[in-house]
């Protein structure tokens, strides 16, 4: 089942920039444009690309929400026209699975596999031992003005607000904690309420944990998996990232996203290449 | 590049039962047989199916080792003939990515996406804050004889040895800890040394964490992702599983595998459906 994903004049930036238009002659294939407005560091933000692919995949599957979704980043996406080719792997009563491939001029950029369900249909019971990160108030956290120029100038920083916990912001002043943790309040800058697509962005929206380990340089994502566990309540999200194992030139980055109602709404893990350069 | 994956008379069970024979007329397509010898609970073990697909994919890619690999379990695999269809997504200098699909009579069973590299070529540096689980000695852990009959009788239990930490084995005597943790020593029963394929098995080889949460019944895996971080040293592996968020009828299960040299060799996470039945 393929439905129209594009909306007339989307009100919000994320909806505008993930618009995918079905090709009438090719079922499951969508035309889209990768927007330069989500650039961060060396390229387009990986969470943005995942959200775009997830939206196209959701339009091809029976259920709306990505319960678990994995992206492999194959080559550097460029702002401009792109194609999303989806394939339904299985259609089930509660879960359906499929693939979405982002290509540019036939070159594969991102390969996404997801299993989708309906978050609204889930059993409301929660038995969690996870506790939300204790963050200082929004006012006490480090805002954009504290970030280095390479961050402040990134287009992505116009799309979202990230207010860093001072305990994980020591690297801004040359004193990384060494623990490999980054925590922040996060929301979209234009007032769009969080939803599962925004959660896919949130887990990849903060400075890399490598900065808190004293590493410099970008951390290219090889693979990113996100479990969306609940539909988030409106308001600020709390995002906590941590790295435990930096080894062999690679590191994992685990993420948790908590909503304003204190619920764990997403869990993520990525495998990334560690930067070669050391701080100092 | 497709090479011969089948070996003449493999010496070990895992190698024998993951043998994939390339179809000469169809590049990247392999004939295989899903062995009933890896049945566990309601079906074939998910780690076994992942290892089999990973082996076929490794034969289709330039690099040998799955650095990050994700399986979506689409329908119940049955012992018997199957086909593995691989597709190369990208070939790179240090990492290559591809897909492997296990099908039976044309029905998709498992869909696997992986990015492969060469573990032997990695920077030897390790900067990890992760600590291995503290397990009692092999002699002090709960062996197969302590398991309920439904476990003891599983074919999988003939293939591997799992010695449970008594601290996470309370459910065997009706006293689950409620923490959602399972820890064990683990190895293949026939003396085969661990390697990346065995690690894909190890992360899905223990009783589900749900048992330690007081849940009964099987926990069908929706999706399983494994990061293989190093080639394991010979000997026993230590496997630690934990669940923090049981909510909405789903739970995540995080896994770590440590080798005999004290190195974190694999990290895993799966999303699974929680069983409906409560213990008691």
Structure in words:
2 copies of one chain form a homodimer. The longest helix of chain A is centred in the N-terminal third of the chain and has 15 residues, at 46-60. The termini of chain A are far apart. Chain A has 6 helices and 16 strands. Chain A is globular and about 55 Å long. Chain A has helices spanning 13-17, 46-60, 149-152, 156-159, 196-202, 209-212; strands at 21-22, 29-34, 39-40, 43-44, 65-73, 80-91, 96-104, 107-117, 126-128, 160-164, 181-188, 221-228, 237-242, 245-247, 250-258, 264-273. In chain A, a hairpin with a 2-residue loop joins strand 3 (39-40) and strand 4 (43-44). With 280 residues, chain A is mainly β. In chain A, strands 1, 2, 5, 6, 7, 8, 10, 11, 12, 13, 14, 15 and 16 form a 13-stranded antiparallel sheet that branches. The first copy, chain A, has a two-stranded antiparallel sheet with strand order 3-4. In chain A, helix 2 runs antiparallel to helix 5. Chains A and B meet through strand 5, strand 8, strand 9, strand 12 and strand 14 of A and strand 5, strand 8, strand 9, strand 12 and strand 14 of B. Strand 9 of chain A pairs antiparallel with strand 14 (245-247) of chain B.
